[in-house]
Design brief:
The chain contains eight helices and 15 strands. It is α/β, with parallel strands linked by helices. The protein folds into two domains: about 240 residues, pyruvate-formate lyase- activating enzyme, CATH 3.80.30; about 40 residues, no CATH class. The strands form five sheets. It has a seven-stranded parallel beta sheet with strand order 1-4-5-6-7-10-11. The protein is globular, with a radius of gyration of 21 Å. The protein binds iron/sulfur cluster. Iron/sulfur cluster (SF4) binds next to helix 1.
Length: about 300
């Protein structure tokens, strides 16, 4: 619930309600659920769990931040990190109030990231329409989820005209080719579309990637660096802004040893003698070195892309 955020792609976090249900492999290590379990202990997670509206004084922060942004002549981006904006179990009345406050805070940019983009159009319309200062986002952690969520996201973007549309591929749990999003079959043929190319369909305006981090008893799964690179390079080729938030808890052992004054030679005890272990491709071996040490550089570069506001 803190005002300042350690999230590199937004300025502030603020949530209209707290509570959610895990719906996707990316939810396995839900930061918000872990925070509630272990630190705040206030909200039960799950379909029948509570969706607890945050306090009036907390809601007034948005107007305060709006004045601050106006005085500074800049936009402050706000991410609702403790809920999903399109949660089926959330109170539509709270969403309507939230959207009304968004319209009254035009110097804020609300980053509505969701794992339920299929609900966006109906729920936004029920809340009086999507405010002009809202961006629509969807989490995609592997190709299967991307094939589903990108379609919903871009359909919603076409109907709702958000400030921009974006994808968060964090935690990235498998490779994703955003230039080949499956749209099912038509006339016996597979329909595949490039979601980063403006001339093909409404395109994704911004892509964020990140590895997974530990959340309590949930231990982070590694991301292969090739999966990050594929997305980075596809964004660069299409001119889509790219932001790499973090590597997670793991790093390829080659990357780690490149930065340290030791050479990587492994030996194993085998049949009464030491024999050298040959690592044909060091990148295929990852080591758990912790989030801080793994950092957020990808091939030595920090990626902090941010999109232009398209609509609004
Ligand atoms: S959708 Fe987001 S907030 Fe909800 S359980 Fe999944 S990770 Fe947590």
């Amino acid at each position: 619930m803190a005002e300042e955020t350690g999230i590199s792609w937004c300025d502030r976090t603020w949530s209209p309600w707290i509570g959610c249900t895990k719906v996707s492999p990316a939810c396995d290590g839900c930061y918000a659920a872990h925070l509630m379990d272990t630190r705040l202990g206030r909200v039960e997670w799950g379909p029948h769990g509570e969706r607890k509206r945050t306090s009036e004084s907390y809601w007034r922060q948005l107007a305060k931040w709006d004045r601050e942004a106006k005085a500074a002549g800049r936009t402050i981006s706000v991410f609702p990190s403790l809920c999903d904006p399109w949660d089926n179990a959330a109170d539509p009345g709270i969403r309507r109030e939230w959207f009304a406050v968004m319209r009254e805070t035009p110097h804020l940019l609300h980053l509505l990231l969701s794992k339920r983009p299929q609900n966006a159009v109906a729920m936004a319309e029920a809340a009086g329409g999507l405010p002009a200062n809202a961006a629509l986002g969807a989490t995609c952690e592997n190709q299967e989820i991307a094939n589903r969520n990108v379609r919903y996201l871009l359909d919603a973007a076409r109907d709702l005209r958000p400030a921009f549309s974006f994808v968060s591929a964090e935690p990235l749990l498998g490779p994703i080719d955003f230039t080949r999003i499956s749209y099912g079959t038509a006339g016996g043929y597979d329909v595949v579309r490039d979601a980063l190319k403006a001339s093909d369909i409404e395109r994704i305006d911004w892509v964020i990637t990140g590895g997974e981090t530990d959340q309590g008893s949930h231990k982070a799964r590694p991301t292969h660096p090739a999966w990050f690179r594929q997305i980075r390079d596809a964004c660069a080729a299409a001119g889509v802004p790219y932001h790499h938030k973090q590597n997670g808890e793991w790093l390829p052992i080659g990357d780690w040893y490149d930065d340290h004054p030791v050479s990587l030679v492994l030996r194993e005890w085998h049949a009464g003698t030491w024999r050298e272990v040959s690592l044909d491709n060091e990148e295929d071996y990852v080591a758990r070195i912790g989030k801080k040490a793994a950092g957020r550089l990808l091939d030595g570069v920090e990626h902090n892309g941010f999109p232009e506001v398209r609509h609004g």
